[in-house]
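Just curious: can you write a single protein's sequence together with how it folds?
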Amino acid sequence: MKNDPHTVLELLKDPDFDPNQLNAHISTPFYSACSYNCIEVVKILLKDPRIDPNKRDYRDITPFHLVCLRGHYEIAKLLINDSRIDPT
């Protein structure tokens, strides 16, 4: 799924799919998309009301903090403009 918007769209159609569930790498699909700078996937996931865009990873880092640390500024702009994001 790393950078496959079509797969993400298909997964989100499934009512049993939990987009906030942690994967084997202890992160959510949204967190992973932010981590890998998958801009299109981030955009798709932000449109889903089930997404918790502030869910922290096992190190207590939010997706917003991660993209800032990694220099993924286009995603940072998307997140800062989303009213659900807590930048603290």
